[in-house]
Amino acid sequence: MKALILSSFFLFAACEPAEETDSASTTTTTLPGSPTPGTGISFTSVSTTGLTVNWGAASDDLTATANLRYKLVSSTSNNIADAATAEANGTLVMDWTANTLSQAVTGLTDETSYYFTVLVKNDLDLVAVYTSTARSTLCDGKMIYLASVSMGNFGGKAGADAACNAQKPSGFSGTAKALLYDSTGRMACTGSADCTSSNTGRQDWPLLGSTKYCNTNYAATMGTTNAFAYLNVTLANSLSSSAAWVYTGLNSAYAEVTNANCSDWTAWANPAQASYGRPNLTGTSFHSYGNVNVFCSTPGYVYCVEQ
Predict the structure, then answer these.
(1) Domain region containing 165
(2) Which residues lie across from 155 on neighbouring strands?
(3) 176 CB neighbour count, 10 Å cutoff
(4) Facing residues of 232 across strands?
(5) pLDDT attached to residue 2
(6) Cα angle for residues 118, 122, 127 (degrees, 5° grid)
(7) Pairing outcome for strands 212-214 and 142-149
(8) 42-44 and 176-178: which strand pairing?
(9) φ, ψ at 85 (rounded to 5°)
């Protein structure tokens, strides 16, 4: 890029040092006489391959607001904090354009963090820079999320599915089914204590084969199922940071745990018990926490799988 050359008149007018405002990891730089950046960068319409970048209108003592020009650049590294590094390291998203406060960005890679910054220029070509801000694109798969239940007697698989579809995450408009064992009609397989390589007798199983699954709001990949529709032994990312009780009735190989599903999710009084998983874990304890059961009177959750 060409270096900015100021006449002696403007050098005299810019005798005071540049003003810098530090953020956690980036810097907003404004030269004397430069425009003042507006409200910071935000994002809307985030998807697996795109998003829209928004920013507030800048102000300037020399140039009308409608005549200020903006330039948007991006980077996959945190290296576009000021005008010089934005010009040197940034990938051009939108060239200098007047009176524009948003720009759609396409062609991005899923589950990738991108940094964006906006440069603003007045009629004298004096430049200021907005604080660079990062946003990740979404996971390209189906979602798994949590729905709360007051106890283990939530009314069988139908009651669990109803809880899932009544507690959808914001922005999710699909349908979901609960990931659990119910002898009345939801199981990974029958006749075996290991369902990870079999689908014999399968009924209404919510996972699909060879499919990527994402955690809540499509933030990151959890794992991809094998041909028999079972998730990896070790998940890439956990569903949640919470060590909650999640009712499943499953063993580590997705088969039934005998007498451990609250009588098909209809009983709550002790000694009724159920096997459960932990959403903060990434091994088989995600759906089956060892040989430990929880009493069915315990408030908990169910896993909800996008269909």
Answers:
(1) 139-307
(2) none
(3) 26
(4) none
(5) 33
(6) 50
(7) parallel
(8) unpaired
(9) -75, -30
Q: DSSP string covering 115-155, please?
A: EEEEEEE-TT--EEEPPPEEEEPPPSSEEEEEEEESSS-S-
Q: CB–CB of 39/56 below 8 Å? A: yes
Q: Which residues in the chain come in under a pLDDT of 70?
A: 1-32
SS3 107: coil
Alpha-helical runs (H) found in the chain = 8-13, 83-89, 156-166, 262-265
User: Token pair of 46, please?
Assistant: 């985030």
Domain count, the chain: 2
Q: 233-275: per-residue pLDDT in tens?
A: 899 999 999 999 999 999 999 999 999 999 999 999 989 999 9
pLDDT at position 29, please?
A: 53
Position 231 scores a pLDDT of: 92
Q: Are residues 229 and 278 in the same domain?
A: yes
**Domain check: are 81 and 130 in the same one?**
yes
Residue 56 φ/ψ, nearest 5 degrees: -80, 155
| Residue 292 sits in the same domain as residue 165 | yes
DSSP 35: P
Q: What is the pTM of this model?
A: 0.82
- The pLDDT score that the predictor gives to residue 82 is 96
CB atoms closer than 10 angstroms to residue 305? 22
pLDDT, tens only, 9-42? 332 233 333 333 333 344 455 556 899 999 999 9
Domain CATH number, residue 57: 2.60.40.10
Q: Which residues pair with 105 in a beta bridge?
A: 51
